[in-house]
Amino acid sequence: MTIKKIAVLTSGGDAPGMNAAIRAVVLAAHHYALPTIGFFSGYNGLIEGSSSALTPASVNGIIHRGGTILKSARCPAMLTEQGLESAATTLKKEQIDALIVIGGDGSFNGLLALNKYWSGAVIGIPGTIDNDIDGTDFTIGFSTAVNTGIEAIDKIRDTAEAFERIFIVEVMGRRSGHITFNVGIASAAEQILSFENFSQTDEQDKLSHLAKEIKQAQQNRHASYIIVIAENLWPGGATQLAMQLKQTANIDCTACILGYIQRGGSPVAKDRILATKMGVAAVQALIAGKSNVMIGERNNQLLTVPLDVAVQHKEKVSESLVSAQENILALTAQ
Ligand SMILES: Nc1ncnc2c1ncn2[C@@H]1O[C@H](COP(=O)(O)OP(=O)(O)O)[C@@H](O)[C@H]1O
Ligand SMILES: O=P(O)(O)OC[C@H]1O[C@](O)(COP(=O)(O)O)[C@@H](O)[C@@H]1O
Question: Hey, what domains does the chain have and what are their CATH numbers?
């Protein structure tokens, strides 16, 4: 099928670098003389027919901006037959031949579902701070989120040192520990608690182990102590863990939830460049007749990955990272 007109949208949790990806898609499409339109607010824009033509002028001056000029959303209507039919109707009405979606695994599942209602070509670009997509070493936004987490914890470390305090810092990642392990290791956290090294059945053991470790560190006059914990891991989160340490071992901890700060801000160089390469590759993949694939990058080489493979969640946080933390770097191991 010859591609004559393409559409692009951003969906799911926004990620720094999404604007850089939009820009690259629009500039590459312009280069190949393909008119492009952007749909607003994720799949809502498709269902409601909310869109705007995108030209090189529309993407001028956005490469350094966090968030997404096309806005993003979680769109429950896409989980219904009616929603999918409306989305397909809009694409047909606008005479779109190909749709590029910048988002996470949920957004890719949306593309796979849409396929049954619309025969155009679909391409995914991995944009999520969580890095939880198979077939690519990195997703757009992950590097910036990790840097933001490190910068925040470096600051927390200063006050923790001054007051000899224990902090429990909760970071994002939905159900995967890429952010937790990378931020924890790079900020020299004394402990990292994530899905890869903790299960909820270990709760009581972990609590007494942590209490023992913290008391040992206090005896050894470690001035500060930082535990980095993944969101959705400990029942009740960092605040509850701090309360339990107080109740069971009389240890005072301060809980600090980094939250959405990790999703915003200007993308670091790595995300701008990854996003730009992937945006160009997405348009080229369409021209080459590809569909139902995600653009990924492995060992610095761009590649295409079937969308149904990208969403499998088989790839985990590197074992060497987990093992280095557990056996060498954690205060426990020293
Ligand atoms: N199985 C599915 N079928 C159709 N659409 C889906 C499906 N899963 C997710 N989506 C769409 O993709 C959107 C984004 O997914 P979500 O999981 O929230 O974020 P992300 O893409 O960042 O993982 C959802 O709000 C929904 O509109
Ligand atoms: O913005 P919401 O809907 O509260 O979602 C929060 C979730 O979004 C994220 O920031 C990004 O996740 P996705 O990219 O999968 O949407 C997660 O780290 C976090 O768990």
Answer: 6-141+267-310 (3.40.50.450), 145-263 (3.40.50.460)
